[in-house]
């Protein structure tokens, strides 16, 4: 969010010429520097880690592209002509070659960094929400249970419950684990697991699910699944797997990036070399190579 607040004016000034007051480019540098260096640190750190292991990823491309755009902007501002008072970014219908020393790309560096950070932010927020839902789901389960022992009820922790144990569920209590009703008739509120708003009537022989609530009559239930085998526990595992695993489209993107990123780097280096060999000048050659990285 900090990067978005800082990058917004940088993008606006670069894209809207009337906002380009005298020395606007120095304000852009002041605002963009924290975004590229601090906001983009996760990408730079991942790129460096990958480099140490001889691997590349989309983080490598992001770090290379934003760093190249930022460093070129520093060169243009301090050693080129972009730092002069009255410098403007104008829109032209035609394409003309230049040495690039009058152009800055701070809006590209800050904008790309912020855009990708936003994607990670929404992903992290979704995972936090799923984690909160998981914790709330686990809290629905009963903490203790009244188990039938020699014709009387014995209150014990839920962890001591075993398969085929018979336990009592009074009106208003949470059903301790998955089981089958042996005696009693009631209605069970399953909304917390299924979303069904109307309680479901149960009678002897009907299956019930742990963490649902008995709303009326007294039930005696025989446990059929306990611990990690219950439906509640399986749902928790599914949420955890969804949080820690990757979707098929993410795995596909990883495989593509393994080819795409090295290809882009080679294309950028090839662009740089071709422009230099044609005698277009280092500034123009580097500008073209940076454009390849930023677009990719």
Summarize the structure.
This protein has 296 residues and is an alpha+beta fold. Helix content is 54%, strand content 14%. The protein is elongated and about 95 Å long.
Keywords:
9 strands, 3-stranded antiparallel sheet, elongated, 9 helices, 296 residues, alpha+beta
Could you explain the architecture of this structure?
Helix 1 runs antiparallel to helix 2 (24-39) and helix 8 (248-277) packs antiparallel against helix 9 (282-295). This protein has helices at 2-15, 24-39, 41-52, 58-78, 106-139, 191-194, 231-244, 248-277, 282-295, and strands at 144-149, 152-157, 166-169, 178-183, 186-189, 200-202, 207-208, 213-214, 219-225. The protein is of the alpha+beta class and 296 residues long. The protein is built from 9 helices and 9 strands.
Q: Tally the beta strands.
A: 9
The Rg value, from CA coordinates, equals 31 Å
Strand order of the largest sheet: 2-1-3-9-4-7
**How many H/I helical runs?**
9
Succession of helices and strands: HHHHHEEEEEHEEEEHHH
Which percent band covers the strand fraction?
5-15%
- What is the global morphology? elongated
Largest sheet: 6 strands, antiparallel
**End-to-end distance:** 24 Å
Q: How confident is the prediction overall: mean pLDDT? A: 88
Helix share, percent: 40-55%
Unreliable stretches (pLDDT < 50, length at least 5) are none
Derived structural class: alpha+beta
